[in-house]
Amino acid sequence: MDTLWQHEAFIGGAWRGAGDLRRFPVLDPATGETIAEVADCGEAEAEAAIAEAAIAYESWRGTTALERSRVLRRWHDLMMERQEELARLLTSEQGKPLAEARGEVAYAASFLSWFAEEARRAYGQVVPAHRADAEVVVLKEPVGVVAAVTPWNFPLAMITRKVGPALAAGCTIVVKPAEDTPLSALALARLGEAAGVPAGVVSIVTTRDAPSVVGALMRSPTVRKLSFTGSTATGKLLMRQSAETVKRLSLELGGNAPLIVFADADLDVAVRGTLASKFRNTGQTCVCANRILVEDAIYDRYAEALAEAVRRLKVAPGTVEGAAQGPLINRAGFAKVERHVADARAKGGRILAGGQPDAQGGLFFQPTVIADATPEMALADEETFGPVAALFRFQTEDEAIRLANATETGLSAYFFTRDLARAWRVARRLEAGMVGINEGVISTEVAPFGGVKQSGLGREGAAQGLEEYLETKYVLFGGL
Ligand code: ADP
């Protein structure tokens, strides 16, 4: 197969430019340089993709689960064969260290293999009937044409996590990738094409004008479901827009994850877990710890150990050997981190590590640890989405739970303790869709990923992830 660098949109199985050959630049966040010019689609291309998806749906839904499973498995295998090339492409438009990019390729591919397996387990039911002369049968059917709107922080995985179950269920899907990272989406489509995904089953509509393309998807009565990953604000907007045509919704929105360190925790495990949870992807994940709550008795020791570990993180372009912290994705992301640090400093925060833009300039910010954080600081209720660890102090388990739950969102939560009874108690009381105990990285294709409260609706991955793309049809056989 030829190169994975594609610049045209992928609609109905064809590589197409946008009307009047409009294009938009894709930047390398490590250098600020333009690395590609990609088709800038509008409503017309979105509508074409929907029409192609509707045609393809008629035949794709009629394939056997085994046929769909084989296509997904081949797609997974091709991703892994091209892992290094995909990782480099990902790093060049997204900025994460190459080691993390390789990890994302494998993680993204795992959703294709997982749903290749789940495709064959979309069982219905035969229910004992309410009458002697009847049979009650429950069928599982694909939802139909799906729209996916995805973010830039995991440009491959956030797509396969939707495309995998959609295809497994027999749905067809139109993907609108984030404007910062369209190249990964197009590379994925190229591999899907080679794996035998039929024309129109997956389309990728690249654009820098999200409202127009997504608006067309949301208005269309043909599109029966939206799966969105991104900010809570945009999620609410799309939820409102989807009301008009009553679409099924899966929403993975923002988090404001608490990470609690109890005094009985293993200090090394807690520091390692915090580093992994907070500084992965330079702090740009929706499950990154955003508020670190530390029990008074261990506060100073933990703070010093964390600061020391953070000072050792190498800040460098993702392609540099040993890079641990890449650039932030764009100016807006960088400005938010600066604002949070300045606000925390002004409100009495003590900087134990970092605290400044990095000396190499551009979008690099020093990984930062701030002690004496308080609920009045902006970083207490806004997701920083950057390399800033803010340490709050608490005295009792009840206080920790109260602080942890004092947020409108509830995606992930973490805590560190060696007390078994406390582990159960706290896990039960945390208002979150996912809880990590003595562990800072919890995402895996085998477990249901998703949040409660304003963090969203539905789950991705796991058996639950397939259900999101299935409708239930009840059939009564009467007069038997
Ligand atoms: P983030 O803060 O992670 O960039 P966004 O919610 O802004 O989160 O972006 C997630 C996805 O939603 C991206 O694909 C983006 O293009 C899209 N998006 C952003 N704003 C809108 C909007 N007003 N209408 C439709 N899609 C949008």
UniProtKB/TrEMBL annotation:
Pfam families: Aldedh
Name of the protein this chain belongs to: NAD-dependent succinate-semialdehyde dehydrogenase
A biological process term (GO) from this entry: gamma-aminobutyric acid catabolic process
An example molecular function term from Gene Ontology annotations: succinate-semialdehyde dehydrogenase (NAD+) activity
Family: Belongs to the aldehyde dehydrogenase family.
Highest taxon of source: Bacteria
Keyword check for Iron: no
Active-site feature positions: 252
Keywords: Oxidation, Oxidoreductase, Potassium
Positions of the Aldehyde dehydrogenase domain: 17-475
